[in-house]
Recover the amino acids of this structure.
């Protein structure tokens, strides 16, 4: 019998950094040490440069970005992380501008990030929207960053998560992650924030969509925007939503997602929205659920990275590359089963022991 050699995974060479009393690593080269210090001092330029570094696809940049993140990690985790989702036109940008100003007026520092894998096509959601967030963009205590424009949803999400950590290290204590309600992006954003809020329009069609797509289950808060246009319709939609949510088992026994009405345009309902966010944190912190959610998210994130990495190793393997077209053809034509094909490809790659 031929001995199967285990496929060699690239070895992570990052050594455990020596941490100075100020939390910065000795391992960082001087330029990056200055960058890290700039981020910790809350300098926007340093923060923007650091995010550019983590978004870079150059291998040397990636190595530097990893070291920088490692150094700053002890300074992260203190922000309230909020996800805002909803279909295009529901009023996300208008809402973030209005709520953002309220948050700043209450003495917080706010970072707004976006997860939008389509932004390479559309030119960047927040970038275009920055005009709609004009007053927010001008304020010193706010930091607005468009979605990274390269890559798949997974790639964009990973960069956004890391950008979120950098913003926390820079002292931003509220992070808002905006996403357009398309495809997987909502679930992805829900997986990186403490509270996921869904914006809806006052009509019945929209909520049915969300229910069908399974978005309702991941919402911690639903807000019916544009209530100013037809307050009665907004109240009716609110009642429908409450009814729909009533039939779902809430993610926490201590939190049933509230349904609010608001007008981003007229700045109505914003204070209630923010108070609900604070109530969420104040309710789930003492029960331990708040921390537990983050722990779960961190472990999930690790597994997502492992899956992505394994996938890449597998697909880049020369033997897999060679065999793949032929095997795919056979699976497509029904000559071999998908299961047999997968086993054969694993064997060809000597990826792992091919027997489970
Ligand atoms: N009447 C009314 N219009 C709104 C409200 N919020 C947003 N809009 C308008 O809806 C349109 C889309 O808003 P926008 O914030 O760009 O939506 P986004 O695509 O979700 O970011 C804009 O013309 C806004 O002025 C609201 O509360 N009431
Ligand atoms: Mg927008």
């Amino acid at each position: 019998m031929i001995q199967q050699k285990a496929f060699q995974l690239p070895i992570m060479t990052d050594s455990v950094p020596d941490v100075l009393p100020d939390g910065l690593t000795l391992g960082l080269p001087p330029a990056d040490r200055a960058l890290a210090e700039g981020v910790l001092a809350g300098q926007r330029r340093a923060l923007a440069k650091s995010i550019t570094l983590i978004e870079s696809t150059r291998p040397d940049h990636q190595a530097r970005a990893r070291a920088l993140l490692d150094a700053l990690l002890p300074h992260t985790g203190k922000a309230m992380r909020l996800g805002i989702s909803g279909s295009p036109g529901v009023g996300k940008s208008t809402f973030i501008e209005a709520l953002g100003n309220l948050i700043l007026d209450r003495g917080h520092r706010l970072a707004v990030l976006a997860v939008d894998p389509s932004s390479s096509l559309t030119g960047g959601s927040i970038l275009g929207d920055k005009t709609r967030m004009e007053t927010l963009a001008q304020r010193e205590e706010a930091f607005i960053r468009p979605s990274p424009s390269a890559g798949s949803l997974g790639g964009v999400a990973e960069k956004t998560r890391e950008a979120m950590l950098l913003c926390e290290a820079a002292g931003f204590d509220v992070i808002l992650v905006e996403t357009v309600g398309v495809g997987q992006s909502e679930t992805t954003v829900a997986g990186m924030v403490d509270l996921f809020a869904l914006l809806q329009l006052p009509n019945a069609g929209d909520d049915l969509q969300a229910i069908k797509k399974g978005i309702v289950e991941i919402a911690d808060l639903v807000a019916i925007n544009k209530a100013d246009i037809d307050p009665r319709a907004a109240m009716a939609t609110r009642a429908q939503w409450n009814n729909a949510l009533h039939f779902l088992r809430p993610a926490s026994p201590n939190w049933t997602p509230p349904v609010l009405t608001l007008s981003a345009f007229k700045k109505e309902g914003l204070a209630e929205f923010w108070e609900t966010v604070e109530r969420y944190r104040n309710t789930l912190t003492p029960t331990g659920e708040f921390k537990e959610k983050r722990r779960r998210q961190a472990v999930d994130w690790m597994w997502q990275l492992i899956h992505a990495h394994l996938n890449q190793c597998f697909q880049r393997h020369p033997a897999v590359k060679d065999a793949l077209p032929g095997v795919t053809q056979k699976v497509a034509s029904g000559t071999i089963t998908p299961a047999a094909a997968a086993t054969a490809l694993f064997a060809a790659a000597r990826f792992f022991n091919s027997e489970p």
Notes: Confidence is low (pLDDT under 50) at residues 1-21.
